[in-house]
Amino acid sequence: MTVVTQMTARRPSPSPLLGRMRHRPPGLGASLLTGVLAAGLGLASSAVLVIVLWISSPYPDSGPGGALHVAAALWLLAHGAELVRADTLSGVPAPVGVTPLLLPVLPVWLLHRAARDAVYGAAGEDGPLVGVRTAWAGVVAGYLAVGLAAAVYAAQGALRPSWLWTAVCLPAVAVGAAGWGVWAAYGCPRGPAGRVLPVLPRWARRPVLAVSGQGWAEAAVRAAAAGVAVLVGGGAVLVAASSLWHLGAAQEAFLRLTEGWSGRFAVLLLCLALVPNAAVWGAAYALGPGFVLGVGHVVGPPASDPAPLLPPFPLLAAVPEAGPGGPWNWAAGVVPVMAGATVAVFVARGAVGRSRWWAVGVVLLAAVVGGVLTALLGAWAGGPMGAGSLAGFGPVGWQVGLAASAWVVSVGVPLVLGARWWLRRKAPTAGGGGTVRVPVPAPSGVRPEETGFGCEPYDVTRAEPVEAAQPVWYADEVREARWAALRQAGAEEGERQGGEKEEARAKGKAGRTGKAEERKKAEKGKKAEKGAEGGGEGKPDPR
Questions:
Q1: What does the pLDDT look like over 253-307, one tens digit per residue?
Q2: 107 — alpha (psi -120 to 50), left (phi > 0) or beta?
Q3: Among residues 222, 173, 213, which one has the least CA distance to residue 370?
Q4: What distance in Å separates the CA atoms of residue 509 and residue 490, rounded to the nearest whole number?
Q5: How many CB atoms lie within 10 A of CB 195?
Q6: Which of 75, 413, 366, 252 minimizes the C-alpha distance to 67?
Q7: For residue 412, which phi and psi values (nearest 5 degrees)?
Q8: Is 357:336 a contact under the CB 8 Å cutoff?
Q9: H or E segment to which residue 291 belongs
Q10: How far apart, in whole angstroms, are the C-alpha atoms of residue 169 and residue 188?
């Protein structure tokens, strides 16, 4: 009984155990569930849209099962997977590879939010964070599990996903978006390049160290992103202007494509989802290579040669007419010039205090980064729309990327050198003066309206030259000089105090010596008086 009592006394109470379990950060299971939930929400959104269109359609081709198969296929298409249409008139499967660039917004956002929530866990932003690998791997694994089930289900419908493209695009989107969410949950840290070096091959480590050490990478990425944004924005302006120019043809194509309001609503949604694709196509047109409307049919500023018998579609009505390009077609070259100028301005702001070779190097690196981004956008905005002549549709990625890099180099390098010279000329230097005009309050007795603007300004004068910068108080040489002065002052104070003490000792010794002599003299005088008194008593009186 005593042993049982001791064991019971040593056993902790259940409340601390429950508290520790309650406050323990969630692990892999919660992250998996978050990834599954993100994929389920994306699939549910696609299914709701397709089911609404199927219900509103007066003549549906299939039942609700077919509509759900189409919803799963569209969800995979939003990740970049290519679809294959099996039921064609010729019996030859026709690929559908043009991904509307507005569709990936929802899956990427859901993955980003899921990864952030997995890092924060049930405790929220104020609680302990889940590990990076645990949250990231859990969300990706859960999302890919649902994606695999959706691909198997969609393979039984009319629009079947290509297994090769599904195996490449779906994990790429999941990994990238989940990594972005985890990175954002940890405050977007910018770690040193040394963390990446062990993963890189040996021949690539020295360039990475050189680029990161000089600040090239950050400046180049920022400038390239701004240039690509200006380029795509300019392409959107070109598409809008051409659509307004061909407004009648676009309206006729919209009305001819379908008759019912549900079909027109579906076409309108498709046109809205393809607006980013049209902007990229416009950017490719402005860069020079243009885009392909059928195999061997290129549309660009030099000439327009669209494929015959294209299906009527409102956005295709904005394509220039067949024939050689005119002045208005060549005027589209203003867009890449503006993109190159934007890159130069972004680089020149940080190149004021650096050498011209740094500025040129950053522009070249920005040209490479911008070319890669433009090539990826061009490849993603296009793709096959069928077999035969429709196997090529949209920009050719590598051509658009090379053209973007060439435009940035040819426009950005001269402009960045000129902008750097101008900014350095305008910047104040240490040895020159500048014009200064400082308003001060008006003196007493003068009304503000007499000065013109309520205060009395100084005359325009020449500022005094700025002296060379002196060492700051926390510099090493200043600190050493300050300590030396303190030590010297301490030594002088010690010598002064030592002299005063010696003088005080000497005075004290002299005083004690004088007092001793006075005491001796006083004692001798007393003895002499006593001796005189004693001698007078021993002698007889002469009288």
A1: 888 877 778 788 888 899 999 999 999 999 999 999 989 888 778 888 888 887 6
A2: alpha
A3: 222
A4: 28
A5: 8
A6: 75
A7: -75, -40
A8: no
A9: strand 291-293
A10: 25
